[in-house]
Design goal:
alpha/beta; Nucleotidyltransferase, domain 5; 6-stranded mixed sheet; hydrolase; Mut-7_DEDDy_dom; nucleic acid binding; 3'-5'_exonuclease_dom
């Protein structure tokens, strides 16, 4: 606004007997201020707000002010957001009679102006005197969750109440249409937004945002645990990628003493196992006989010791076969040290912090299976040439010297004279920062770091199909395991990857797995440095790998290590001197994808650019994407754990993992770059939206 106009507005106020009434006269007789943006009415209002501070004598009180407040409330119902605060301030609405304000908001609400009633309530801080469920329900039904979050934002008791309401809507048999009948004017009501899966995602996001006890939402938590249970059965009996012990740990911690989940567990067991196994679990869970299906109760009384002996024999045979098929630690078991006290950690410190040292670093945490919050690191593995140290972080964090451990970790990462090897190190460091706030800037201070995930993208690797011919049924290797197989000859045994790393004591298999994960990095690095050319790498390997402090990590995307996409699984066939896909650009109209249901925003964005997009519905199983991809020749776009499952069900290069934490635009750019899609002006909006 020009200075000249400002001066003219001020002269106008000075010439009025009652500037406050004058502003209302002007607003009531015009409508330019009702639109979005900065109207003349907006500039005059904000200038009056400033002018009043210089001329406090014009402020009104008593009956005169009440009349002005009654007039301004009628205007507020039609106001754009930018006019609300200035008008509330000018007419001192925070001092107005609270019952009068509540009555006005109630009038708006009963007219069906739910959004306007909520915004005014937030601005005037009326929430403690209102019925939160009544105010928020129509907003939720109209998909105005951001406004609902603002409404309860400063009131913890309302946050808890909101979460309890949303959880009640997730109860089996609940029908949302029973509620919608009570509300008028729900023009934007979207029933598809109210399936249990969408509500469940909203509840978990709010639990995290408001830091509320998840026990307030038993329905949602039970449903999430049931999905975890189904996933564990899929891993054990379909993929066959979890050991019995590992699987048992997770099933027990998921089900606990919850009888509802125990009932589902028995039903799943009956469909996947023999009656002896079902009876054994019934015994372990101490289930009452009336809960057990016909036949299981009888078996429970006839459990034979002989069967357990046979199980143990089978397990021994399995261990022997594993040694032939998988990478084995080349150091004695006595050289793996499990550290739980500060005194033990000091010995590790002295050996690790030596100039010229090369160390392999890895971390483990309990899989979240979609639960709230970032993972907290349970085990930190540091491998040297002759020994491996496993740091029990939960135990070390309980000790008096706990503030010294972050200092050790910072010294290790910031010392350029020590070469640190990792795989997906940015994901590890972000989890470490979530575990210890003192370590939040470790990634910025890191020097002398080699992330073998970055190197993996440069290495020439056989396709999974070629490298697995004649190996019988087993999931194709990916990520670090595939790199280990190519460089060292045998893959890593990843059956313990999804272990419960918080449970103590750790099983022997977990200890060996954790040590192998860190130690193999040393062997890979040594072999790549000795003969880089045979792996398609430049001869000056060391110089190109060890990152200098001024260079940003090449892997910008922060990856949870249990979600690390296999670079070789995503690349196109042929030698990979460059980590890009085909050299010839592709037009969007020739590119067909199927988007998993957590990437619907990305799907809509790609469709705007002319890409042929199919999207899974919220209630669809992730595996439907593989069916569509195979039938219609589409590329799957997915994220996180579903990637691990889907990429093994389609041809190489036909499944791509997108960073779920980024916005749709950044995700789309990632896809366009990876597949070399060239978008022209003619492509934009060329498809029906």
């Amino acid at each position: 606004v020009s200075q000249e106009l400002k001066e003219e507005i001020k002269r106008g106020f000075a010439g009025l007997e009652d500037p406050l009434a004058g502003l209302l006269d002007m607003l009531e007789s015009s409508s330019d201020w009702k639109g979005k943006g900065h109207s003349l009415g907006y500039y005059i209002t904000t200038e009056l707000q400033l002018w009043i501070k210089e001329h406090p004598a014009v402020q009104q009180s008593g009956i005169k002010l009440k009349k002005l407040q009654a007039r301004v409330l009628r205007i507020l119902a039609q106001c754009p957001a930018n006019l609300l605060d200035p008008l509330i301030s000018i007419y001192q609405l925070h001092t107005a009679d609270r019952n009068y304000l509540l009555g006005h908001v109630s009038h708006l609400y009963h007219k069906g102006d739910y959004k306007e009633a909520a915004i005014l309530s937030i601005k005037l801080k009326l929430q403690p005197d209102q019925d939160m469920e009544k105010m928020c329900t129509p907003l939720l039904l109209q998909d105005k969750t951001n406004l609902v979050e603002d409404y309860v934002g400063e009131y913890p008791e309302l946050q808890s109440k909101l979460l309890q309401i949303l959880d009640a809507w997730c109860e089996p048999g609940f029908n949302i249409r029973d509620i919608t009948r009570q509300y008028q004017g729900l023009s934007r009501y979207k029933p598809d937004k109210f399936n249990r899966k969408t509500l469940s995602k909203l509840v978990f996001r709010l639990l995290d945002r408001f830091n509320v006890d998840p026990a307030l939402c038993p329905n949602v938590i039970n449903q999430r645990h049931l999905r975890t249970l189904n996933y564990l059965f899929y891993k054990r009996f379909v993929e066959k990628t979890m050991t019995q012990e590992n699987w048992t740990d997770h099933v027990q911690s998921t089900v606990g003493e919850n009888q509802w989940l125990q009932g589902h567990l028995i039903r799943l067991l009956i469909s996947h196992c023999d009656l002896n196994t079902v009876a054994r679990w019934a015994q372990r869970c101490n289930l009452p006989k009336e809960m057990l299906p016909y036949g299981v109760a009888d078996k429970l009384q006839k459990l034979q010791i002989q069967e357990r002996v046979e199980e143990a024999t089978k397990a021994d045979n399995y261990e022997e076969s594993k040694k032939k098929d998988y990478y084995q630690l080349p150091i004695p078991r006595a050289n793996i040290h499990f550290l739980q006290t500060w005194e033990e950690t000091l010995q590790c410190w002295e050996k690790v912090l030596r100039p010229g040292q090369v160390v392999g670093i890895d971390m483990e945490w309990r899989p979240s299976f979609g639960m709230v919050g970032k993972p907290r690191v349970s085990l930190l593995q540091i491998a040297l040439k002759d020994e491996v140290f496993l740091l029990d972080l939960p135990r070390l964090l309980e000790q008096a010297e706990k503030e010294k451990l972050p200092l050790f970790i910072q010294m290790l990462y910031s010392d350029a004279a020590i070469t640190k090897l990792g795989y997906g190190m940015s994901g590890d460091l972000s989890s470490l920062a979530a575990t210890w706030s003192a370590l939040k800037d470790t990634d910025k201070q890191a020097q002398g770091v080699v992330d073998l995930l970055t190197v993996d993208k440069e290495v020439d690797v056989l396709s999974p199909e070629e490298s697995y011919k004649g190996r019988g049924f087993r999931q194709p290797e990916k990520g670090l395991s595939l790199l280990v197989q190519h460089v060292l000859g045998k893959p890593l045994d990843k059956t313990e990857q999804l272990s419960n790393w918080e449970k103590r004591p750790l099983r022997e298999e977990q200890i060996l797995y954790a040590a192998s994960d860190a130690y193999c990095l040393l062997e890979i690095y040594e072999k790549l440095c000795k003969d880089p050319a045979s792996f398609g790498l430049s001869s000056d390997l060391t110089g190109s790998l060890v990152e200098k402090p001024s260079i940003k990590p090449r892997t910008k995307k922060k990856l949870n290590k249990q979600e690390v996409p296999s670079p070789s699984g995503q690349e196109c066939k042929g030698p990979k001197k460059e980590p890009s896909c085909p050299s010839a650009p592709i037009s969007p109209k020739d590119f067909s994808v199927v988007c998993d249901n957590m990437l619907q925003g990305l799907g809509r964005y790609l469709r705007c650019l002319g890409v042929d997009v199919r999207m899974l519905e919220n209630e669809d199983d992730h595996r439907k994407a593989a069916e569509i991809a195979r039938q219609e020749g589409r590329v799957i776009l997915t994220s996180g754990l579903p990637y691990q499952t889907l990429q093994s069900q389609v041809a190489e290069g036909k499944c791509f993992s997108v960073n779920c934490s980024e916005k749709a635009k950044e995700q789309a750019l990632q896809v366009l770059k990876h597949f070399n899609i060239q978008v022209s002006l003619a492509d934009i909006f060329s498809r029906c939206q």
